[in-house]
Automatic annotation (TrEMBL):
Matches recorded under InterPro entries: P-loop_NTPase
Name of the protein in its database record: Interferon-induced protein 44-like protein
Superkingdom, natural source: Eukaryota
UniProt entry tagged with the keyword Coiled coil: yes
Amino acid sequence: MYRVWDYVRQNDEVGKLRIQIAKLEARNQELTERLEELRSNFEPLSMPWRENGVFSQEVCFDKFKAKDQLLRNIRELVHPKHCKDINLLVIGKLGSGKSALVNTLFTVLRNNGQLANLAPPSSPYKESKTPMLHEIVLQNIPGTKTLRVYDCRGIMPDKKQNAVFTEDLKKVIDGNVMKDYEFDETCEIQENDDFYRNNPTISDKMHCVLFVVRADDLDEQKDVAAICSMQMYLFRKNIPSRMILSHVDKLDMCVYGDLTKLFVSRHVQKKVELAKMIFSLQDIQVLPVANYVKGTTQNIAQDILALQAIENIMNETISYVGNRI
């Protein structure tokens, strides 16, 4: 009798060992594949995945001249006379880098060497620090015009909360919601609300929406329904949008994280292609940016990436507003 139980016990132990070995072999294979991927990511492409005109392998460029030229290009844009203000709206999940993007855009346009902190950043583990519709003037444009960006709370994992929030965002886009409106998780803004605008002009409406998504966890983007819903709304109204890939500096960058090599980075290219596939976007709509989240002074490579994004956004936005006569 004891021999039978010993035999069963021994076989049970052997079975457990086999399971453990199988798990270790699977983990070893996973780590081997990850190591191969890392080696591949750190190997630069022979040609840039996007011709950007600034960070070029072949041309030794003056980064400061390139930055100054981008600033001049943005300042010299001709804005439509019939629209007083150009308005941008930033949308993204909690912790995606929305507020950091706003601070980065303000920093590079102000260009005084110091980092801005007008929009308080949040994280996926804390309550949103932007519960209201926060307005920031990015730039005063000649002719009493302004470039304004609007920040708001992040998209939450709760689908019920997002259903109310996305309806409010549609009203923000249409110009019905005034700045400093505090979003209510339980009900949409009503027409009798003090922050509701009944007859918005073109200067009150949003002219481009910036969706912010973290490049370093793009593979984990499961809750995309709210963003896709907003994309469809913009598509029906023919309102331009851009996808801002934040945290690109957290990717496996070649040449020890040198941002000037971003456009020959295999990992960044993979993330851009993935974003295009997930959100059905054109190449020109996906803009990689490394937001300012640490430090106290500006970095030339981060400035250039942000300014390239602004130039792209502004050209599209001004064309859109110019056709809304």
